Amino acid sequence: MNANITDQIQADLTDHAEGTKLHHTKTKRLAKLGLIEADGTLTVTGQQVLRETLDADQAEADAQTEIEDMAADELADAKPVKAKRTRKPADLNACHCGCGATTRSLFAQGHDARYAGIVGRRVAETAPITADTPWLDAEVSRHMVGCSDALIRKAIRVAVNHRTKLAKRAS
Ligand SMILES: [Zn+2]
Predict the structure, then answer these.
(1) Which of 18, 39, 126, 168 has its CA 20 to 30 A from that of 55?
(2) Does residue 47 form part of some domain?
(3) Which top-rank group of organisms is this from (predicted)?
């Protein structure tokens, strides 16, 4: 398009074509650029510029509508995600066995037994030579504060059995 045709001139030409009465200096400028005849009718160039102006306006309006549609779609998509309830991280504890899993209680599913095994074996392995069953019992209990009696008994059994196994291996 002619570099002399500014947005303002396009706007003036559009107004003129639509029958809006322009200030005479504006009409004069349109005539000088060869867009309109002396009697006000659009020249071939004027018609072409007007068509291009209207096409550009329509393209801009289409683009704007598309952006608005996309924003509306995004909003519609986002809604169910927002509505979905997410558990607060504060509600979750790290599994007590040390596996790194998170849980709503002390242990992840099945990891209480795993922890009893871990504690039992560790106590057996670190126990002094002179350690007897009451010593193992006390040491296991010390590591399992907050655990159920059944779980503590299980860990003690693991410790005693593991210690027996280690003693056999050593002899
Ligand atoms: Zn665990």
Answers:
(1) 39
(2) yes
(3) Bacteria
